[in-house]
């Protein structure tokens, strides 16, 4: 496994630049409010290069992306749009090009650190491991 140990459950701890980022990617104001300081729980199941990445939102809504490193997969954005992407692994980080932003995820000091970049705005979300 090496530096690829993503499996686990992570609870939202904090973020930076949320408002600027979600406005850049065109989320509606009701979605923006819903997502602010949202205690999202991210659950990652990993089997080698195969991943199932589920986000559990308060109120029971979930989004699941299933992908294999270096293979094209059907994915869904924060705003619920469907698209195709090839997820890559670069220096232990998972990297995905979403339609209007670039998303990376890495495990850093036992935490899940996700960074999304859209037109120069960098949104960072940190989640602590709970399982």
TrEMBL record:
- Pfam families, per the entry: Lipocalin_7 (PF14651)
One MF term in GO for this entry? lipid binding
Q: Which residues form a coiled coil?
A: none
Q: Please provide the record's keywords in A-Z order.
A: Cytoplasm, Lipid-binding, Transport
Task: Tell me where in or outside the cell this protein is found.
Answer: Cytoplasm
Q: What is its main location?
A: cytoplasm
Q: Which domain of life is it from?
A: Eukaryota
**Sequence ranges assigned to domain Cytosolic fatty-acid binding proteins in this UniProt record:** 8-25
**Which InterPro entries does the entry mention?**
Calycin, Fatty_acid-bd, ILBP
**Gene Ontology CC, one term:** cytoplasm
PANTHER family for this protein: FATTY ACID BINDING PROTEIN (PTHR11955)
Give the family, as the similarity comment puts it.
Belongs to the calycin superfamily. Fatty-acid binding protein (FABP) family.
Name it: FABP6 protein
Native source species? Ardeotis kori
